[in-house]
Amino acid sequence: MKELISVIAQGLVDHPEDVRVNVVDGEHAITYELSVHPSDVGKIIGKQGRIAKALRTVVTSAAVKETKRVNVEIVS
């Protein structure tokens, strides 16, 4: 899942070398924290959050077999 988020994010930004995905494994959920270059945050979020919502939808769909909830957070 980490690789999926990384590949999608690297395709969207101008600085793909600055894409980092941190995994936080909680009791009931797995949270993936996506951090990018400060100038690329808007490209990851998109207009009215459409790209971020689409990214979360893809990750949620890919994580159907997981027993825990999967969340994607964009951190700066």
Automatic annotation (TrEMBL):
PROSITE patterns in the cross-refs: KH_TYPE_1
Coiled-coil features, chain-numbered ranges: none
Compartments in which it is found: Cytoplasm
GO annotation terms (biological process): cell wall organization; peptidoglycan biosynthetic process; regulation of cell shape
Q: Which Pfam family, giving just one, matches this sequence?
A: KH_KhpA-B
Is RNA-binding a UniProt keyword of this protein? yes
Major subcellular site: cytoplasm
Q: Does the keyword Chaperone apply?
A: yes
What InterPro entries does the database record attribute to this sequence? KH_dom-like_a/b, KH_sf_prok-type, KhpA
Q: What GO annotations for molecular function exist for this entry?
A: RNA binding
A Gene Ontology term for the protein's cellular component: cytoplasm
The alphabetized UniProt keywords are: Cell shape, Cell wall biogenesis/degradation, Chaperone, Cytoplasm, RNA-binding
- Similarity-based family: Belongs to the KhpA RNA-binding protein family.
Assembly mode? Forms a complex with KhpB.
Function noted in UniProt? A probable RNA chaperone. Forms a complex with KhpB which binds to cellular RNA and controls its expression. Plays a role in peptidoglycan (PG) homeostasis and cell length regulation.
The record's listing under PANTHER family reads: RNA-BINDING PROTEIN KHPA, UPF0109 PROTEIN SCO5592
Identify this protein by name. Answer: RNA-binding protein KhpA
